[in-house]
User: Fold this.
Amino acid sequence: MRRGIREQPEVPPQPAPRPIFQERQRITGLPLYFQGYLSVRHSRCQEFRVHWTELRGTMLFFYDDKKAPTYSQKLDISSLTSATDVYPDENGSAQFILMLSNGELELKANDCECGKEWRGFILTVTKLSVSPDNSLLPEQLTRMCEVLEKEKKRRNTLNNCSSTSLNTKSPLSSTLTTMPACFYAVSRQEATEMLEKNPSQGNLILRPGSDSKNYAITIRHELDAPRLKHYKVMSKGTSYVIELERRVTLPSLQEVVNYFVTQTRGNLKPFIMETRAAEDPVL
Assistant:
C-alpha cells in the first residue's frame, strides 16, 4: 500500500542567531518586545517594502535582512495617536495604519492574526495599556501584559536616572537611550553620498566602522571648497575614543557627536533626514 506524503506544517519565522541578537541589543540599547516580517509603506509612497522588523521600547527598527546586525531604518512611534483596525486585503494579507503626530504609516502582515498581534503590541507600549480584544488568544494577551510591565519599568528607570542626572548636573548616559539620531547603518561611500546629495539636512553622520565592532564619523565641511573627512571612534569598555592627533575619550556616542558640534561652534550639524521621523520614502 502506497503511503501518502504528509504535508509539513508551515514553520514560523525564527529569531536571529544569538550573536546578531546581542549586537542589535547593544546598538539599539532597547529591550525586544516583538519581531517578524512587515511590509511598510508611507502614505506618499506607492509600493510596500518588506523588512524584518523589531519593536523595541517605543521604536520600530527595520532590517533589510533577518540576519543583519544593524538596522537600515528606525521609526519612533511614541507620538502614536491612533491605529486603524486590522483589515484583510485581496491577497489575504492584513493591513492597518498607524496615525502619528507627523504622518501616517501603513503596515501589512502575512495574515490577520499576525496583524492583530503587531497592532496589539504597538498599542500596548505606546498607550501603556492592553486593549481588550476578543479576537486575541489568552496567551497573546498574557504576553502583552508582560511587555506592558517591562515597558513601565523601563520608563520608570529612565525617569529616575533623569532625575538623578538633573540633581547631579550631569548628562543622562546614552546607554539608557537609543543611538544618536544621526546614526545610519551605512558604509563610508554611502555616508559620503548622503552628505553630498542632502547638504541641507546636516553634514555629520555616525556610522558603523569598517570592522563592524567600532564606529566612524563622516563629515562634509564647507570651507573654500567642500571637504569630506572620516574619523575612527573606538569602543573601549563603556567609553568611546575619537582617533584624533590628541585622543578624546567620551562616555557615550551622543557625547561624541556633541563634541564635534561644540568644537566647530555649530558649523557641523548632525545629519537627520526629514523622512526619519515618519515620512521615510524608503520604507
Q: What stands out?
A: The chain has five helices and 13 strands. The chain has two domains: 18-158, 188-276. The first strand starts at residue 32 and ends at 42. The first helix runs from residue 18 to 28.
